[in-house]
Amino acid sequence: MYPKIFADYFRGFERSQEVFVAMPFSPDAEPRWRSIFSPAIRSIRLRPFRVKDRQISDSILTDILAGIGRARLILVDVSFERQEERPPGPNPNVMYELGLAHAMRLPEEVVVVRGDSEKAEPPFDISQVRYHRFQAERPRRAVTQIRSLLRQSERTLDATRDLIVGRSLRSLDPDAIRFLWAVRNHDSFDLAVFDPDRNGLYGLGA
Question: Stretch 158-167: mean pLDDT, rounded?
Answer without folding.
Answer: 70
